[in-house]
Design brief:
By secondary structure, the protein is mainly alpha-helical. 71% of the residues lie in helices and 0% in strands.
């Protein structure tokens, strides 16, 4: 289940020949997701030979160590599909914020930026929803696990990363700069939450999913901060 989840997340389907994944890693090294690729490939290699992975990926890629959780974030371990669902929830909240914010700013540069980020969130949501549908047959009937996930989202994520799109602050910003600051702080909170989840998570396939989202959030943060400097 975990292996299928990890492979489906990256669009790789059940190839039994492990050496082909080295070629995938070689390709990933040319792009920004090399670190994410290493986590996923290490997880696959670990199933074949626990002694081989440290020599290929480094000792830190295969050791699973305990770390302290971020204050305010419940220490909990998730399954791969849980990580996708959590990522999906964060992306949906981001979409709601950026869509509403784009309608409530006047500077064309800020409006274009929020519109762009909303579109990226929408694309990410579609991708994640496809992964969840692929995994649905394997997770059907696991009501207890679902309640556990819903509780975590409700207690730790909902309304705590992006402000609700119907909130007064989002309905009417004092200035376009304030709108950018809301976006910046939201992306920072998302990165903080994901960093905490990564520190507390031992499963490499789950870490790969959270890492992938964090890369995207850091991109968004950089774009917003750069634009704020120009306003």
């Amino acid at each position: 289940m975990r292996l299928a989840c990890g492979l489906s997340f990256f669009g790789i389907m059940g190839d039994p020949n492990v050496w082909k994944y080295y070629n995938i890693l070689f390709l990933l090294e040319k792009f920004e997701y090399a670190a994410v690729g290493k986590i996923l490939i290490a997880s696959i290699i670990k199933r074949y030979d626990r002694l081989l992975a440290p020599f290929i990926f480094g000792e830190s890629m295969t050791k699973e160590t305990k770390s302290e959780s971020m204050p305010g974030i419940e220490t909990v371990s998730f399954q791969c599909v849980d990580a996708i669902e959590i990522s999906l929830f964060i992306e949906k909240e981001g979409l709601g914020f950026y869509e509403k914010a784009a309608k409530n700013v006047s500077d064309p540069r800020v409006k274009d930026m929020f519109t762009r980020l909303a579109e990226e969130e929408r694309e990410h949501i579609q991708t994640l929803q496809t992964k969840v549908r692929f995994l649905q047959p394997a997770i059907s009937g696991k009501g207890k696990a679902r309640r556990h996930l819903d509780l975590f989202v409700s207690n730790e994520i909902k309304g705590k990363i992006f402000p609700a799109s119907e909130s007064k602050a989002v309905q009417k910003f004092k200035s376009d700069t304030e709108a950018l600051e809301f976006g910046i702080e939201s992306e920072k909170r998302s990165i903080e939450v994901l960093s905490s989840l990564l520190k507390n998570e031992k499963k490499l396939d789950v870490k790969a999913i959270f890492s992938h989202l964090m890369v995207e959030e850091k991109k968004h943060l950089a774009l917003l901060e750069d634009l704020k400097k120009k306003i």
